[in-house]
Write a structure and sequence with these properties.
With 177 residues, the chain is of the alpha+beta class. 25% of the residues lie in helices and 46% in strands.
Amino acid sequence: MRRIIMGAAALLAALALSGCGGAGAVDALRAELEGARAVAITAEVASLGEGRLGEWTLSLSRSPDALAVTVLAPEEFAGARAVYSGEGRSLEFEGLVLDMGAGAVSAVDALPLVLEAVESGYEALAWSEEGCEFASLQLTDDLGVTLRLEGGVPVWAEILSGGESAVQCDISEFTID
């Protein structure tokens, strides 16, 4: 009888761990992104790298032929855009230069990295906690994204560079068209 109880407990634990939800949510989000004509993400982004705190409100827009990140705040940088193409990225603004940071991850790179991680990052770990789903997505050995989803929609992300928090994003909009 004791073996049956222990076996049932082990089976329930395995089922609970395998069905923690994060994996299914990321897979569903990836499937939705595959057929997307456009993606829009807006977030409050805190850049933590190199001992400096920078806070930005950023908006990402992606269509089949373009990806751009626009600064919404702080006001002195509002309207600055980082445009990403196959050849690299360029900044567009009226004579001001946006500090891109010297580290591997800058605030302006945060939303494109979150989107890339959702679409193609290796899902190292997924779990549920307090009604939210979490996923740890690896882009490279040194670059990863931890994602929190509510109702299958990303609401928070942390980008880790070299195992340390580089950027955190409070996502207020994540729409797929």
